[in-house]
Amino acid sequence: MDKKISVAAECRCELVEQIPRAECCRRALLGGLLYCAQLQEDGQISVMYKEEEAAQAAARLLRQFFSAKTEPEVVRRGAHRFWSLCFASHRAEEQLTDAVRQGKLPMGESVCVSCASYFLRGLFVACGTVTDPEKSFHLEFCLPEGVCADAVEALLEEMGTPPKRTCRNGGTSLYYKGSEAVENLLAAIGSSTTVFNLINAKILREIRNHENRVANCDTGNIQKSVSATRRQLEAIAFLREHGRMDRLDDELRRTAELREENPELSLGELGLRMSPPISKPGMYHRMNKIIALAEAVAAESERKE
After folding, report:
1. What pLDDT score does 302 carry?
2. 109 burial class (0-12, 13-18, 19+ CB within 10 angstroms)?
3. Of the candidates 185, 204, 205, 203, which has an alpha carbon nearest to the alpha carbon of residue 194?
């Protein structure tokens, strides 16, 4: 049986499904895909992705802009599988080195208004994750040590989606919590399917919460009703045990007898059985008089003892 794809994996695959037409946007996308690449001592550049689709997209863009002939290779790290690209390119090395040294984003010289979004799209594919909205609303960019987080944070702020920041596992995490913040970021980088799924999950969660509140309210009301009925029956049994039922007036005696005969009925339903029928408040008032009388008899018995 195929393993169910995670929400994060589905999002990353969606983001590389369509390569932009504008050259500057393709450069920006590649810049994001390579932002967390490792520069090796032998001049090689290596980068790993969690999805084969991401590695294939990066390989196509590398061939186009840097004439780098590289194909994804499967790498296993424990129980996890990654797709690795390894290539040599002096121009790519210069851009990545400058990005780290000067805190720049490798998006090329000429950029349009969409380039920032495509850079962040590539960056999310390279090092981003988002939780299943059925469980929580959390999204983050996990930037490894040596990668300039300040430049990414500044870009996110410029786009109107300022992140929170923390250090984790030697690197920097730029993250978002809450459905609105996660929705805004995903919309900004173009993951419409994930945004739609997140909104659906939020609606379903609100519906479930409402149903739970209603169920809890109903349960509480039932428990109160059962407790009240038990108290009424105990009072009636006490009066009968002490020979006080005959001293009740006709209305109270008929009310007590009807309650004994129908312990499962609510006060409203019990009132409809009276002749003539009376309202629920009327039944409530009569039952309270019966309970009060039983308490008075009990107090009298204690004084005599």
Report:
1. 75
2. exposed
3. 185
pTM of the model: 0.67
pLDDT tens digits along 87-145: 888 877 777 776 655 556 766 566 788 889 999 999 999 999 999 888 888 999 999 88
CA atoms within 13 A on the CB side of 299: 6
Average pLDDT over residues 70-91: 87
Give the separation between CA 274 and CA 287, rounded to whole angstroms.
Answer: 13
* Separation of alpha carbons 184 and 139, rounded Å: 11
